[in-house]
């Protein structure tokens, strides 16, 4: 009988997609240089005026990955300043996020299915247990922002496909 692993359902998934986003950032930077596109035009691009720009999509995807690792591991969520303005800055944020989620011991995440987790504050406070938090809140938000970042670049002519987004595992 195989047991369910909260660690396996979270950390490797975040790592897979964050590593893919990092590789896509390299392609985006090369694309901008090759096509003589101002990198800031891609970094600040939005799919629609009421949506957040590309840079913010990457920041939020990182925030959900580190937030989930911390909360599932029973740790304080580290705070990152949202100051990235270049592709290199975004790659550094992803690398910092990957290093953080790697630092959360697997043993602290395992068994977190029923851990009480609270997000937000004031009227935006939400209460979960670990498994519900991971599957119905953290992962959907993480994938939404990672996918939106990918879609922004694809919309702007970057030649990437599903294999680029999924990456390797």
TrEMBL record:
The top of its lineage is: Bacteria, Pseudomonadati, Pseudomonadota, Betaproteobacteria, Burkholderiales
Specify the species: Duganella levis
SUPFAM superfamilies cross-referenced by the UniProt entry: DinB/YfiT-like putative metalloenzymes
Put simply, this protein is called DUF1993 family protein
Which branch of life, at top level?
A: Bacteria
Q: Which PANTHER family match?
A: BLL2446 PROTEIN, DUF1993 DOMAIN-CONTAINING PROTEIN
